[in-house]
Amino acid sequence: MEEYKEERPEIMAAVEKVFSSGKLILGESVAGFERNFAAYNGTRFGVGVNSGTDAIFLALKSMGIGQGDEVITVSNTAIPTVAAIVSTGATPVFVDIDPSTYLMDVSKLEAKLTSRTKCILPVHLYGQCADMEAISRIAPGRNLFVLEDCAQSTGALQKGKKSGSMGHASAFSFYPTKILGAYGDGGMVLTSDQELAERIRRIRMYGTSKTYYSFEHGYNSRLDEVQAEILNVKLKRLDQYISRRQQLARLYDRELEGMGLVLPATTVGNEHAYYLYVVRHPRRDEIISELAKREIFVNISYPHPIHLMEGYRFLAYERGAFPETEKAAGEIFSLPMYPKLTDDQALAVCKSLREIMVRLG
Ligand SMILES: *Cc1c(COP(=O)(O)O)cnc(C)c1O
Predict the structure, then answer these.
(1) How far apart are CA 299 and CA 307, in angstroms?
(2) Residue 1: pLDDT above 80?
């Protein structure tokens, strides 16, 4: 949100435009942003919804997924990925990760398929796409949907294709700290499948289309006009934000090399959008407490695999079920990464890390 100072006049003009239009729900701003965001990502349709969580939930509902079905995903993700699956009544089934990219290990995917599997839900974690070619090879002939969780990968590319354009549908979040952030909650489903798009459009509003008549049980989950107009403004700068993130990643790569930290790995063919710059070390907890002493506060995304959380104990997974996921959760941490971070600030982080790593030996 540090861009606010610079962007304030445009943001305020966007808010004023919507307020004075008198149309606050599902008007021209949402329709316009849906078109623009779909075009940016290379899909035919966009449907604006309340949040990234709802984008996943409504996309799954539009695919007819519910009780008795299984959705394959990973355990090292934001809680909402799994919460949305569970909300449909379906069962999340986890696959372990590749320890170098922290993305779904697709070589372990096929073993998880059952007659109940209805969807594969790869998470493009930290800003880099999971192996969509391998996943897309598994889906055909099995009647499986592929839903991309793009909440962290806005603007990322794989072999020239934008994240969110490679599955049957994709879910985006405009939570304020995401790569494209609103000034409140927001989300979107993208798809090039007209049937899915129409169904999501319907169930985001009580199962209706225009009139007070419901065609199926639905929900209230709409992106609102104010957020959509603000996002329209910010979309113009999205590529700039992403280039700055990539620039900072190059700086970290260069400055942190040879220090003993495991640096982020980018798969061949991927262009990383660096939502997060995640490094790894077995003595992570000592490193971050030393950083805190130097007033550098870092996040861990995420410290707990979902299959080991109290809230998901009913899924009945044991510790040890996903060794790479569990090991990574104990060793990763994220360095400061946002477009307004200056080179000097990033260099100061690197300098502190160098001192700490030397002292650790
Ligand atoms: C943020 C996030 C979501 C959910 O988005 P909200 O807009 O906060 O509901 C889902 N999946 C992942 C991977 C996320 O990072």
Answers:
(1) 20
(2) no
pLDDT score, position 140: 78
pLDDT digits (tens, 9 = 90+) for 198-226: 999 999 999 998 789 999 999 999 999 99
| Residues whose CB is less than 8 angstroms from the CB of residue 302 and which lie 6 or more positions away in sequence, other chains included | 76, 77, 78, 329
Cα 77 to ligand 1 centroid, rounded to whole Å: 9
Q: How far is the CA of 332 from the CAs of 179, 308, 326, in angstroms?
A: 20, 17, 11
Q: Is the pTM of this model over 0.90?
A: yes
* Local structure of 95: helix, strand or coil: strand
Using CB atoms within 10 Å of the CB of residue 160, give its burial: 0 to 12 exposed, 13 to 18 middle, 19+ buried. Answer: exposed
Q: Which residues, including other chains, have CB under 8 Å from residue 361's CB and lie 6 or more apart?
A: none
Assigned token pair, 252: 């970290």
Which of 175, 274, 278 most suits a substitution to test ligand 1, by most atoms within 8 Å of the C-beta?
175
